[in-house]
Amino acid sequence: MGFPYGRWVLIDRMPEEPIIAFVYLDKHAGPSAKGGLASDSQISTMPSRTVRLTPTTSLSELDDAEVTARKLPLLPSWLPTYGPQPLADAPWRHDPNIKDKFNPQFPDDIQALVHDGDPRRMRRGPELCWVRILRVDRAATRPVTAAVEKSHFVYVGELLNQPHTLTSVKKGDKLKLLSVPGMPHPLHVTDEYLVERLQWQITPCDKCGASECFDPPSVMARFRFPDAPADSLIQAFTSFCSHCGGIQQLRLLEA
Ligand SMILES: [Zn+2]
User: 99 alpha carbon to ligand 1 midpoint, in Å?
Assistant: First the structure.
Protein backbone atom coordinates (compact mmCIF):
# COMPACT_ATOMS: atom_id res chain seq x y z
CA MET A 1 0.00 0.00 0.00
CA GLY A 2 1.24 3.48 -0.79
CA PHE A 3 1.38 6.53 1.45
CA PRO A 4 0.17 9.93 0.18
CA TYR A 5 3.62 11.54 -0.01
CA GLY A 6 3.59 15.30 -0.36
CA ARG A 7 0.09 15.68 1.04
CA TRP A 8 -1.38 17.05 4.24
CA VAL A 9 -3.36 14.45 6.14
CA LEU A 10 -5.49 14.11 9.22
CA ILE A 11 -4.37 11.28 11.46
CA ASP A 12 -7.18 9.94 13.57
CA ARG A 13 -6.15 8.94 17.11
CA MET A 14 -9.46 8.37 18.85
CA PRO A 15 -10.07 9.18 21.62
CA GLU A 16 -7.13 11.63 21.50
CA GLU A 17 -7.17 14.80 19.44
CA PRO A 18 -6.33 14.19 15.75
CA ILE A 19 -3.05 15.34 14.24
CA ILE A 20 -2.72 17.38 11.05
CA ALA A 21 0.56 16.46 9.39
CA PHE A 22 2.53 16.44 6.14
CA VAL A 23 3.54 13.03 4.74
CA TYR A 24 7.21 12.64 3.78
CA LEU A 25 9.92 10.02 3.60
CA ASP A 26 12.61 9.94 6.27
CA LYS A 27 15.43 7.93 4.65
CA HIS A 28 16.33 6.33 7.98
CA ALA A 29 13.05 6.09 9.87
CA GLY A 30 10.78 5.39 6.90
CA PRO A 31 7.41 6.83 5.92
CA SER A 32 6.53 9.65 8.34
CA ALA A 33 4.19 12.55 8.91
CA LYS A 34 5.11 15.74 10.72
CA GLY A 35 2.71 18.34 12.05
CA GLY A 36 0.74 19.14 15.16
CA LEU A 37 -2.55 18.82 16.96
CA ALA A 38 -5.50 19.94 14.89
CA SER A 39 -5.97 22.83 17.31
CA ASP A 40 -2.36 24.05 17.03
CA SER A 41 -1.86 27.34 15.22
CA GLN A 42 1.65 26.69 13.87
CA ILE A 43 1.35 23.21 12.45
CA SER A 44 3.58 23.85 9.46
CA THR A 45 6.16 26.23 10.92
CA MET A 46 6.58 24.76 14.42
CA PRO A 47 5.68 21.08 14.10
CA SER A 48 5.30 19.41 17.49
CA ARG A 49 4.50 15.84 16.44
CA THR A 50 6.17 13.29 14.20
CA VAL A 51 4.32 10.06 13.42
CA ARG A 52 5.96 7.02 11.82
CA LEU A 53 3.40 5.66 9.38
CA THR A 54 2.42 2.02 9.07
CA PRO A 55 -0.22 0.40 6.86
CA THR A 56 -2.58 0.45 9.84
CA THR A 57 -2.21 4.19 10.57
CA SER A 58 -5.66 5.73 10.19
CA LEU A 59 -5.21 8.77 7.97
CA SER A 60 -7.22 10.74 5.45
CA GLU A 61 -5.95 13.32 2.98
CA LEU A 62 -7.05 16.92 3.39
CA ASP A 63 -8.58 18.32 0.23
CA ASP A 64 -7.39 21.60 -1.27
CA ALA A 65 -10.15 23.63 0.44
CA GLU A 66 -9.17 22.29 3.86
CA VAL A 67 -5.48 22.98 3.22
CA THR A 68 -6.32 26.57 2.26
CA ALA A 69 -8.68 27.04 5.19
CA ARG A 70 -5.96 25.94 7.63
CA LYS A 71 -3.42 28.22 5.89
CA LEU A 72 -1.09 25.29 5.25
CA PRO A 73 1.65 25.74 2.62
CA LEU A 74 1.93 23.48 -0.42
CA LEU A 75 5.25 22.24 1.00
CA PRO A 76 6.46 22.90 4.57
CA SER A 77 9.75 24.80 4.94
CA TRP A 78 11.43 21.92 6.83
CA LEU A 79 10.92 19.42 3.99
CA PRO A 80 14.29 20.00 2.18
CA THR A 81 16.23 18.70 5.21
CA TYR A 82 14.90 15.23 4.40
CA GLY A 83 16.36 15.15 0.90
CA PRO A 84 14.68 14.01 -2.32
CA GLN A 85 11.10 12.89 -1.77
CA PRO A 86 9.04 10.28 -3.58
CA LEU A 87 6.88 11.68 -6.33
CA ALA A 88 3.31 11.19 -5.18
CA ASP A 89 2.04 11.17 -8.75
CA ALA A 90 4.75 8.96 -10.28
CA PRO A 91 3.04 6.65 -12.80
CA TRP A 92 4.45 3.47 -11.24
CA ARG A 93 2.54 4.24 -8.04
CA HIS A 94 -0.71 3.95 -10.00
CA ASP A 95 0.22 1.01 -12.24
CA PRO A 96 -2.36 -1.67 -11.34
CA ASN A 97 0.10 -4.51 -12.02
CA ILE A 98 2.73 -3.38 -9.53
CA LYS A 99 1.38 -0.62 -7.28
CA ASP A 100 1.00 -2.93 -4.27
CA LYS A 101 4.45 -4.49 -4.68
CA PHE A 102 6.71 -1.65 -3.57
CA ASN A 103 8.76 -1.78 -0.39
CA PRO A 104 6.75 0.22 2.19
CA GLN A 105 9.99 1.66 3.61
CA PHE A 106 11.43 2.61 0.20
CA PRO A 107 8.46 3.46 -2.00
CA ASP A 108 10.31 3.35 -5.34
CA ASP A 109 11.96 -0.03 -4.67
CA ILE A 110 10.46 -3.19 -6.11
CA GLN A 111 11.61 -6.77 -6.69
CA ALA A 112 11.95 -7.45 -10.40
CA LEU A 113 12.54 -10.59 -12.45
CA VAL A 114 16.08 -10.00 -13.72
CA HIS A 115 17.64 -12.47 -16.16
CA ASP A 116 20.26 -13.17 -18.82
CA GLY A 117 17.67 -14.32 -21.37
CA ASP A 118 15.25 -17.21 -21.78
CA PRO A 119 16.01 -19.73 -19.00
CA ARG A 120 15.77 -22.64 -21.47
CA ARG A 121 18.39 -21.12 -23.75
CA MET A 122 20.70 -19.86 -20.99
CA ARG A 123 20.18 -22.81 -18.63
CA ARG A 124 20.05 -20.17 -15.93
CA GLY A 125 16.88 -18.96 -14.27
CA PRO A 126 15.85 -15.41 -13.48
CA GLU A 127 16.63 -13.85 -10.10
CA LEU A 128 14.40 -11.66 -8.01
CA CYS A 129 16.42 -8.46 -7.53
CA TRP A 130 15.63 -5.14 -5.91
CA VAL A 131 15.35 -2.31 -8.42
CA ARG A 132 14.72 1.37 -7.61
CA ILE A 133 12.46 2.84 -10.28
CA LEU A 134 13.77 6.22 -11.40
CA ARG A 135 11.64 7.27 -14.33
CA VAL A 136 9.35 6.24 -17.15
CA ASP A 137 10.97 5.46 -20.47
CA ARG A 138 9.42 6.03 -23.85
CA ALA A 139 6.21 4.02 -23.93
CA ALA A 140 6.52 1.20 -26.43
CA THR A 141 3.53 -0.08 -28.32
CA ARG A 142 2.95 -3.70 -27.42
CA PRO A 143 0.26 -5.30 -29.55
CA VAL A 144 -1.53 -8.32 -28.04
CA THR A 145 -4.50 -10.37 -29.19
CA ALA A 146 -6.46 -10.17 -25.95
CA ALA A 147 -7.52 -7.02 -24.19
CA VAL A 148 -5.28 -7.69 -21.21
CA GLU A 149 -2.87 -4.79 -21.48
CA LYS A 150 -3.33 -2.48 -18.54
CA SER A 151 0.00 -0.73 -18.68
CA HIS A 152 2.17 0.36 -21.54
CA PHE A 153 4.90 1.89 -19.46
CA VAL A 154 8.53 0.96 -19.68
CA TYR A 155 10.26 1.89 -16.44
CA VAL A 156 13.94 2.66 -15.94
CA GLY A 157 15.44 1.66 -12.61
CA GLU A 158 18.73 1.06 -10.86
CA LEU A 159 19.70 -2.48 -9.88
CA LEU A 160 20.31 -2.28 -6.12
CA ASN A 161 21.89 -5.64 -5.41
CA GLN A 162 24.51 -7.79 -7.12
CA PRO A 163 22.84 -10.83 -8.73
CA HIS A 164 24.19 -14.21 -7.58
CA THR A 165 24.48 -16.00 -10.93
CA LEU A 166 23.58 -13.54 -13.69
CA THR A 167 26.37 -12.29 -15.93
CA SER A 168 24.69 -9.71 -18.16
CA VAL A 169 23.91 -7.21 -15.41
CA LYS A 170 25.57 -5.97 -12.24
CA LYS A 171 24.72 -3.85 -9.23
CA GLY A 172 24.27 -0.21 -10.18
CA ASP A 173 23.22 -0.91 -13.78
CA LYS A 174 20.23 0.89 -15.19
CA LEU A 175 17.62 -1.67 -16.23
CA LYS A 176 14.40 -1.38 -18.18
CA LEU A 177 11.33 -3.00 -16.69
CA LEU A 178 7.90 -3.80 -18.05
CA SER A 179 4.92 -4.32 -15.82
CA VAL A 180 3.29 -7.44 -17.22
CA PRO A 181 -0.25 -8.60 -16.46
CA GLY A 182 0.01 -12.17 -15.16
CA MET A 183 3.48 -11.79 -13.69
CA PRO A 184 3.84 -11.09 -9.98
CA HIS A 185 6.92 -8.90 -10.55
CA PRO A 186 7.98 -6.44 -13.23
CA LEU A 187 10.10 -8.05 -15.95
CA HIS A 188 13.59 -6.90 -16.94
CA VAL A 189 13.79 -6.38 -20.72
CA THR A 190 16.60 -5.39 -23.08
CA ASP A 191 16.55 -2.68 -25.73
CA GLU A 192 16.82 -5.42 -28.38
CA TYR A 193 13.67 -7.00 -26.98
CA LEU A 194 11.75 -3.71 -26.93
CA VAL A 195 12.67 -2.91 -30.52
CA GLU A 196 11.71 -6.35 -31.83
CA ARG A 197 8.62 -6.51 -29.66
CA LEU A 198 6.95 -3.87 -31.79
CA GLN A 199 6.83 -6.26 -34.75
CA TRP A 200 5.40 -9.28 -32.94
CA GLN A 201 2.01 -10.18 -31.65
CA ILE A 202 2.28 -12.31 -28.51
CA THR A 203 -0.84 -14.17 -27.48
CA PRO A 204 -0.82 -14.20 -23.67
CA CYS A 205 0.24 -17.41 -21.93
CA ASP A 206 -2.68 -19.82 -21.50
CA LYS A 207 -1.74 -20.38 -17.84
CA CYS A 208 -0.42 -17.16 -16.29
CA GLY A 209 -1.56 -14.63 -18.89
CA ALA A 210 1.91 -13.16 -19.42
CA SER A 211 2.14 -11.39 -22.76
CA GLU A 212 5.90 -10.85 -22.76
CA CYS A 213 8.96 -13.06 -23.24
CA PHE A 214 12.52 -12.99 -21.91
CA ASP A 215 14.30 -13.14 -25.29
CA PRO A 216 13.74 -11.13 -28.46
CA PRO A 217 11.43 -13.23 -30.68
CA SER A 218 14.10 -13.68 -33.38
CA VAL A 219 16.45 -15.15 -30.75
CA MET A 220 13.64 -17.43 -29.56
CA ALA A 221 12.93 -18.60 -33.12
CA ARG A 222 16.60 -19.34 -33.88
CA PHE A 223 16.95 -21.34 -30.66
CA ARG A 224 13.77 -23.34 -31.32
CA PHE A 225 14.45 -23.98 -35.01
CA PRO A 226 18.23 -24.37 -35.21
CA ASP A 227 17.99 -26.25 -38.52
CA ALA A 228 16.02 -23.54 -40.33
CA PRO A 229 17.95 -22.09 -43.32
CA ALA A 230 19.81 -18.92 -42.35
CA ASP A 231 17.86 -16.81 -44.86
CA SER A 232 14.44 -18.10 -43.79
CA LEU A 233 12.13 -15.92 -41.77
CA ILE A 234 10.12 -17.70 -39.10
CA GLN A 235 6.81 -15.87 -39.01
CA ALA A 236 4.92 -17.69 -36.28
CA PHE A 237 5.68 -20.20 -33.58
CA THR A 238 4.50 -21.54 -30.26
CA SER A 239 6.68 -21.29 -27.17
CA PHE A 240 6.64 -22.35 -23.56
CA CYS A 241 6.14 -19.33 -21.33
CA SER A 242 9.48 -18.42 -19.69
CA HIS A 243 7.60 -17.46 -16.56
CA CYS A 244 5.35 -20.46 -15.88
CA GLY A 245 5.79 -23.08 -18.62
CA GLY A 246 2.37 -22.47 -20.21
CA ILE A 247 1.89 -21.81 -23.92
CA GLN A 248 2.43 -18.51 -25.71
CA GLN A 249 2.00 -17.91 -29.43
CA LEU A 250 4.13 -15.46 -31.35
CA ARG A 251 3.32 -14.11 -34.77
CA LEU A 252 5.23 -11.63 -36.87
CA LEU A 253 3.01 -8.71 -37.80
CA GLU A 254 2.66 -7.67 -41.45
CA ALA A 255 5.25 -5.08 -42.37
ZN1 LIG B 1 2.93 -18.25 -18.26
Answer: 21
DSSP string across 200-251: EEEEPPTTT-----SS-HHHHHHHH-TTS-TT----EEEEE-TTTS-EEEEE
Compute the distance from residue 245 Cα to the ligand 1 centre, in Å.
6
The rounded Å distance from CA 144 to ligand 1 centre is: 15
> Is the pTM of the predicted complex or chain greater than 0.85?
no
Give the tens place of pLDDT for each residue, 161-183. Answer: 999 999 999 999 999 999 888 89
Residue 151: the pLDDT is: 46
CA of 36 to the centre of ligand 1 (A): 50
pLDDT tens sequence across 132-158: 999 888 655 555 544 545 446 789 999
> What is the whole-number distance in angstroms between the Cα of residue 205 and the centre of ligand 1?
5
Sheet holding 30-37, edge to edge: 49-52, 30-37, 16-26, 8-13, 59-61
Coil, strand, or helix at residue 39? coil
> What spacing in Å lies between the alpha carbon of 78 and ligand 1's midpoint?
48
According to DSSP, the residues that pair with 113 across neighbouring strands are 128, 187
